[in-house]
Amino acid sequence: MAAADKVDPIHQFQIHPIIPLHIGGYDVSFTNSSLFMVVTIVLASAFLYWSTASRALIPGRLQSVSEMAYEFVGNMLRDAAGKQGMQFFPLVFSLFMFVLVANLIGLFPYFFTVTSHIIVTFTLAILVIGTVVVYGFAKHGFGFLKLFVPHGVPGLLLPLVVAIEVISFVSRPVSLSVRLFANMLAGHITLKVFSGFVVSLSALGAVGIAGSVLPLAMAVALTALELLVAFLQAYVFAVLTCMYLNDALHPSH
Amino acid sequence: MFVTSAYAQETAPAAAEGDTHAGTAVPAAEHEAFPPFDAKTFPSQILWLVITFGLFYLFLKRVVMPRLGGIIDVRNDRITQDLDHAARLKAEADAAVAAYEQELAEAKANANKIGQQASDAAKADAESTRKKLEAELEKKLGEAEASIASIKARAMKEVGTIAEDTTSAIVEALVGGKADKSEIAAAVKSASR
């Protein structure tokens, strides 16, 4: 069974309850996914908390990492949404840290990847778009709808352009969530497939063991690639969040 | 992954079947649902994501970010302060250099003035000494000329006397008898003219 687990590339995404819990007919059990969400926030919080505990004027390595993440996200948000956008700094920073740490934890063998489930990334994307919509209407009222009506478009083309703008706005949460989810899912499946080749080839005897060097090297290379993807997708998610928030602040293009 | 497949069997009989297929390294096609698209797990995932992410957001907003922002602000303040301090010290150093150069220039001017004065004084001294010497020499020259003139006058007078004596002697010898003294003087006087 254990060997079977190793070579099924989909098995790693399965969710099973650790503490079964049912409320109002819904299954809200504390699952392995929930466990790794908790691990993610505990690790990220602990790192950020302890690395900055000394509040050193001249930062140590760990404090530098925390400061770099903070200033990185801060600059990103300031560049995209201006000074006004800084009110969303806590949201963007926690999204970035959550996605980044969840992606990185997922790279450890036998660990569950929270962001490889579309419902998780979609919930985060809805949080972003919900913030944009709620803040946009609260700040600009119906002026927020100017977002869909670009300036300088001939009257004849306007209905078409507005339709396109609306569709592109509606597809934002989808693209935002699917991008992260698909990257994580595909990366982990590929890693698992190549690692599975190592196991299956090794079972064939001496020749197989010699041959399994190739998929092993591939798995190592893919791990490096996945490390990059983990950073990149967290960055992309945060950057797009910043740009969407900019729309909420300045709806008229 | 680390939990037995017993749960998978009780909730998803097909999953167990998939596992056995997977033993032959063929991706199982008969899974009841691809796990990320299994809607049965959605409520639990959403709930726990909201709980964990909400806590994470609050912790970062209340504790971590004020602290990080504080650290960075303090450092920026400190850097600004240090830069100001450095600028002030530099200004002081520049002022000291300027003052030094000014003093140096003054001292040079002073030295020049003193040198000039000394040389002027020495020149004036030499000039007055020279003038005094010249005046003395002039005086001595004048005295000498005067004494020469008096000696000459006396000599001339004596020449007259000698000429009278000689004349009276010549007259005595030639004419015999004594000639009048005043006549002889007048004759000599007219002859010497």
From TrEMBL, chain A:
Annotated family: Belongs to the ATPase A chain family.
GO MF annotation terms: proton-transporting ATP synthase activity, rotational mechanism
Question: Which top-rank group of organisms is this from?
Answer: Bacteria
- Can the keyword Disulfide bond be found in this entry's annotation? no
Where is this gene product found? Cell membrane; Membrane
Report the function annotation for this chain.
Answer: Key component of the proton channel; it plays a direct role in the translocation of protons across the membrane.
Write down any Gene Ontology CC term: proton-transporting ATP synthase complex
**Which residues are listed as membrane-spanning?**
35-58, 88-112, 118-138, 147-171, 191-217, 224-246
What InterPro entries does the annotation carry? ATP_synth_F0_asu, ATP_synth_F0_asu_AS, ATP_synth_F0_asu_bact/mt, F0_ATP_A_sf
**Which lineage?**
Bacteria, Pseudomonadati, Pseudomonadota, Alphaproteobacteria, Hyphomicrobiales
Q: How does it sit in the membrane?
A: Multi-pass membrane protein
Entry protein name? ATP synthase subunit a
Q: Which HAMAP family match?
A: ATP_synth_a_bact
Q: Which Pfam families match?
A: ATP-synt_A
What keywords would UniProt list here? ATP synthesis, Cell membrane, CF(0), Hydrogen ion transport, Ion transport, Membrane, Transmembrane, Transmembrane helix, Transport
Q: Does the keyword Cell membrane apply?
A: yes
**Gene3D superfamilies the UniProt entry points to:** ATP synthase, F0 complex, subunit A
Q: Where is it mainly found?
A: membrane
Q: Which organism is it from?
A: Mesorhizobium atlanticum
From TrEMBL, chain B:
Keyword annotations of the record: ATP synthesis, Cell membrane, CF(0), Coiled coil, Hydrogen ion transport, Hydrolase, Ion transport, Membrane, Transmembrane, Transmembrane helix, Transport
Q: How does it sit in the membrane?
A: Single-pass membrane protein
What domain of life is recorded for the organism? Bacteria
**Location within or outside the cell:** Cell inner membrane; Cell membrane
* An example Gene Ontology CC term for this record: plasma membrane
Q: How does it assemble?
A: F-type ATPases have 2 components, F(1) - the catalytic core - and F(0) - the membrane proton channel. F(1) has five subunits: alpha(3), beta(3), gamma(1), delta(1), epsilon(1). F(0) has three main subunits: a(1), b(2) and c(10-14). The alpha and beta chains form an alternating ring which encloses part of the gamma chain. F(1) is attached to F(0) by a central stalk formed by the gamma and epsilon chains, while a peripheral stalk is formed by the delta and b chains.
UniProt similarity note: Belongs to the ATPase B chain family.
Provide the protein name. Answer: ATP synthase subunit b
Q: Which organism is it from?
A: Mesorhizobium atlanticum
Gene from which this protein is expressed: atpF
